Amino acid sequence: MVIKDAKHALVVGGTGMLRGAVLALAESGWSVTVMARSQRRLHQLVEEVQQRGYKGAIHPVVTDYTLEKEWLEDCERAKEAYGLFQCVIAWIHGPAVHAPLQLARWLEQSESPSQFYHVIGSSGADPTVDQVGRRAPFQKLQRVSYHEVVLGFIDEGSYSRWLTHEEISSGVLHALETSEKQVIVGSVRPWTKRP
User: Fold this and answer.
1) HSE-up of residue 6 (Cα within 13 Å, Cβ side)
2) What stretches of 15-68 adopt beta strand conformation (E)?
3) CB 114 within 8 A of CB 144
4) 187 secondary structure, DSSP code
5) C-alpha angle 15/55/20, rounded to 5°?
6) Given pLDDT bands bounded at 50, 70 and 90, which one contains residue 1?
């Protein structure tokens, strides 16, 4: 994978299932600020990029997006330290339901446009259904281009399974390369076949 004109990306939740995407960006020369709760896992990611001699750099930020005020302050400090974010990949789930929109609104205040890739899981509800107008508030933003990466499942015929981390990272990288408004990784139909 080659991503032209390497820049600065922010990846929220980049030490687990998005680890492969973070490594690919760093290999392509991107400067990547990675936010996660685990200092140990962030440190391992930094060491791996250095050991592999990748052109890019990892800037680790230990933070918790469920602490919304402190988390956005950490985003601001990272921007001041490492520069503007041209791309954001956000895997935000659980109780912080408002955090993705808060992050996008924070980006909207920036001096330059950015791409926002919202990674949406499928374990709870069909992520392709915009049940409560999920996309509408993002689409009102002027300097933030909103994209969804919908995580489905793999239909193996007699059974189905969730996506692997490698499949998820590949799907996210595909979304970055194509800039499509919605990329579905795996399948979401028929919804009744999900694991």
Assistant:
1) 16
2) 31-36, 57-62
3) yes
4) B
5) 25
6) very low
